[in-house]
Amino acid sequence: MNERVLVVDDYRETAEIVCVLLELVGCRCASATSGSAALELARSFGPDLVLLDLALPDMHGCEVARRLRAESPLRPRIVAMTGTTTLETRTLALAAGIDEVAWKPLDAKKLRRIAGIDAIPA
Fold first, then answer.
1. Which of 21, 65, 73, 87 has its CA 20 to 30 A from that of 49?
2. Residue 1's pLDDT is what?
3. Which stretches of the chain score pLDDT less than 50?
């Protein structure tokens, strides 16, 4: 597997742990801790999948998704990662171009399903 995954989370440790799991199964992974850093990194990294926290320090994840959709010639799959489990959050995320909303915490089972990977240990 050579999927390129961009993990965006304001908690560096969370992003790093998710990247380690994905790299163990052959994904190329990059991480960012802010929306602006994610947008810059997406331009050079060209992700196939973006795991995107909605609560970022400099902009809301929905704004990051909108900009990714507007700026990127690629159409990466965007999955929001959020601890806010409301219908309003889901509706706003989908309206911003996010493909799916996953509620935190992400365990190995959820991560496998989102990334389409069966080899991550549970």
1. 87
2. 52
3. none
- Distance from C-alpha of 119 to C-alpha of 89, rounded to nearest angstrom: 30
- Quote the CA–CA distance of 13 and 52 in Å, as a whole number: 14
In the block, tokens 């990051």 appear at 64
Strands 77-82 and 100-103: parallel
How far apart are alpha carbons 53 and 7 in whole angstroms? 8
Neighbouring C-alpha atoms within 13 Å toward the C-beta of 20: 7
The answer to whether the CB of 55 falls within 8 A of the CB of 82 is yes
State residue 102 phi and psi, 5-degree precision.
-115, 130
* pTM of this structure: 0.90
- Residue 119 phi, psi (nearest 5): -95, -5
Rounded Cα distance, 115 and 103, in Å: 15
CATH of 4-115, one of 3.40.50.2300, 3.30.110.30, 1.10.10.2840, 2.30.110.10: 3.40.50.2300
